[in-house]
Fold:
Amino acid sequence: MPCTMTRIQMDLPDAIAQDAQAAGLLTPQALERLLSNALARQRAADALLGLAGEVAAAGVAPMSMQEITAEVKAAREDLRKRADRH
Structure:
């Protein structure tokens, strides 16, 4: 399926536009990457929030911050080990 394009024009404060230009963020490729990443984060957040009701209905007890931190560390360690094997 061919990709169609949409032209977008926006107004930014001069200081932000100058800083963004200097950082290389106003190129079509950079803007596409920024928007794509923002959309992916938004979809992930929506998916997590959508699960909140199901978790509450299932009676799953909320995790403490220490439990969450331990889970994140364990997942990162697992990813490192998998990366080391390849």
The CA atoms of residues 44 and 50 lie 10 Å apart.
